[in-house]
TrEMBL record:
One GO cellular component, as annotated: cytosol
Cofactor section: Mg(2+)
Protein name: Hypoxanthine phosphoribosyltransferase
Protein EC: 2.4.2.8
Compartment(s) where it occurs, according to its Swiss-Prot or TrEMBL record: Cytoplasm
Keyword Zinc on entry: no
Xref: Gene3D superfamilies: 3.40.50.2020
Organism: Haloactinospora alba
Pathway(s): Purine metabolism; IMP biosynthesis via salvage pathway; IMP from hypoxanthine: step 1/1; Purine metabolism; GMP biosynthesis via salvage pathway; GMP from guanine: step 1/1
Chief place of localization: cytoplasm
Entry's family note: Belongs to the purine/pyrimidine phosphoribosyltransferase family.
Source organism phylogeny: Bacteria, Bacillati, Actinomycetota, Actinomycetes, Streptosporangiales
């Protein structure tokens, strides 16, 4: 796997340290309140598992799986629910947990969908934000790292379903895309 990588952008240690800070922010924001973490499958599996274990206050955990349609590799913003939440979020404080916000279109749709269910609040926490996400009106309360517009893998992020299990975030060598 090592020869497939071009460079490491965020090390395992940097992820762990930043996650502790993010968890402290979340603990402070939701102190004394009911909190439900909603992870977006499959990319958010790592960040959800690690972030939840850094929280000191109790929280619920639920999952959604969604799929974006569109030609090419960019998200069209038209989203289909593959797996819905198991629980009712009415009057609950929802914190969506994501691995990356790239175009922002997936999350923009998801926030609208979840808000229509009558929650007390819907906020967003993401490990990585890319520059394009600034063009979409999204209120992101918690960001791990702002990274440039490059395709990244690791820590949940995949290329063709590979590399999700890397403990760091990096870019792939050109030969991987060229086959
Ligand atoms: O901001 P956007 O441009 O909409 O892209 C971000 C979304 O795309 C990726 O998920 P993907 O749909 O590839 O599925 P996965 O989580 O199973 O990898 C990523 O995990 C985010 O959920
Ligand atoms: O940079 C990325 N890497 C992997 N999956 C993604 N989904 C949106 N952007 C990315
Ligand atoms: Mg995803």
């Amino acid at each position: 796997m090592g020869q497939d990588l071009e460079k490491i952008l965020v090390t395992e240690e940097q992820i762990k340290a930043r996650q502790r800070e993010m968890a402290a922010e979340i603990d402070a924001t939701y102190a004394g309140k009911d909190l439900l973490l909603v992870g977006v499958l499959k990319g958010a599996v790592m960040v959800m598992a690690d972030l939840a274990r850094e929280l000191h206050n109790p929280c619920g955990m639920d999952w959604m799986a969604v799929s974006s349609y569109g030609a090419g590799t960019t998200s069209s913003g038209v989203v289909r629910i593959i797996k819905d939440l198991d629980c009712d979020i009415k009057d609950r404080n929802v914190l969506i947990v994501e691995d990356v916000i790239d175009s922002g279109l997936t999350l923009s749709w998801l926030v609208g969908n979840l808000k229509s269910r009558g929650p007390a609040s819907v906020e967003i926490c993401t490990m990585v934000r890319k520059p394009l996400a600034f063009d979409v009106e999204l209120d992101i309360s918690c960001v791990g790292f702002d990274l440039p517009n490059e395709f990244i893998v690791g820590y949940g992020l995949d290329y063709a379903e590979h590399y999700r299990n890397l403990p760091f975030i990096g870019t792939l060598a050109p030969h991987v895309y060229q086959g």
